[in-house]
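**Protein record**
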Amino acid sequence: MGRVTERRKVVRIRDGAVSSRPDTLVTEEPLEIRLNGRPLAITMRTPGDDFALAAGFLVSEGVLATAADLQTVVYCAGATADGANTYNVVDVRTAPGVAVPDITLERNVYTTSSCGLCGKASLDAVRTTARHPIADTPPLRVEPGLLSSLPDRLRAAQRVFDRTGGLHAAALFDENGELLDVREDVGRHNAVDKLVGRALQSGHLPLSRMILMVSGRASFELAQKAVMAGIPMLAAVSAPSSLAVDLAAETGLTLVGFLRGSSMNVYAGEDRIALRAAAARG
C-alpha cells in the first residue's frame, strides 16, 4: 500500500542564504471506489484507512447506514493492465437486500481533495436520505469551555501534520470531551469519511452523542457527512458556508465556526450549548 509521506528535494531560501535539502511531503494519490464491482467515484486522498474511507463515503451517499449493510471491502487485484495491484482501487460489496443507487456514466463522481460531492448534493437530498435523523438523537448539552479546548487537542493529535504541514484533520469527541478517534488526510472530506467509516465498521453508527471537530472550514459536504452519520454537533476552526448553515438549520445540526480560544460563532442548533451558564459567568 502507498505511503503517507514522501521525500522530495527542495531549495530553501532563508534570509538570503540558499541551501538544498530533502523535504517531507504528504502523499496524494487517487482512490477509485467501486460499488458491487462497478465504478462509482474517484477521490484524491492520502493512502491509509482506505476501506474506512470507502465505507464512510457510502454512508454520506445514503447507501450504508449500519455495519450490517456492509459485506466486504477489498482492494481490487489486477487493477492495472499488467495485473499489478496499485492499492488505489477498492470494491465495496453490500449485504444482500441493501438498495444501491443507479450507477451510470452521468452519476459517477470525481471528487478532488478540496471538493467532496460538488454539484451533486442538495438540502432536499440530504433531508430525504438521512437514516439517522439528528432530531431523534438523545439530548446533548456542551459547555462552551469544553468546545474551546477541542482545537488544541485536535492539533496535538495531528502527527503527520507535524512532519508535512499539509494535512487536514477530523476528530470525534464525546460529550465529556474525550478524544475517541482522529484521522488526517489531504482532503478534509476524506478525513471525515475515514472517521465515519471506522465507526460504521465497528458498529457504532449513529454517532448520536458525538462532536465532530475539523481543522478547516465547515463546508456543505462536511455538514452533510455529519448529518448522514447522525452526528449532532460540528465544530470548525474556520468559517462555514451559507449552504452548510442552511443544512444545519433544516436538519437540527449544531454548527459552530471560528472556534478559536474562548471565541466561537454558533450558526445553528445553539440549544445544545450551555449559553446561559456561559453568560452568567461572563
User: Anything to note?
Assistant: The radius of gyration is 20 Å. Residues 188-201 form the longest helix (14 residues). Helices lie at 50-60, 123-129, 144-156, 159-164, 188-201, 220-228, 242-251, 275-281.
